[in-house]
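chain below, 173 aa
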Amino acid sequence: MNPRATRGILYLMPTVAFSTPQGTCSVSWNEKGLTRFCLPEENLPESDGPRPAWIDDLIVRVREHYSGKMRDFSGVTLDWSLVSAFQQQVYRQTQAVPPGVTTTYGEIAQRLGLGRDGARPVGVALGSNPWPLVVPCHRVVAADGKMTGFSAPGGIRTKTRLLALEGAELLSE
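prediction:
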């Protein structure tokens, strides 16, 4: 295995970068499942190498999704050992949000049985999501419908583009 740096983080696991209609994405994995998904970046070079068939399938589905054919990624095997039990609960709730639909941080907190202040820890958990798109944190918005809290490359612009691609109803200011 060759180490690979993606967004300033060194990974000692297989990683492949691949083109999509929106830019170059990358994925990393191990024997337990997907360890990292990086949304499109302009300066990420495409790479190739040996990979399991399930990664090839994921790449096809990601390319289709970015081409406007909505795909469900909830069946992708994730390496849950990389996140806390609370993050796992938040991510599983987020995976249940279908393309073109949004939910709020507070609604996820409510589904998890958290109190009134539960939206903030949900937002913190989503801010460290290692699998954006696969765990569609872009579908989670503020209580007033505004686009907030997206730490992936491109920030709110990327979040809005993903939601528009998926046909979500967006509020304009």
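The chain has five helices and seven strands. Residues 30 and 79 are 8 Å apart (CA to CA).
thats it, cya
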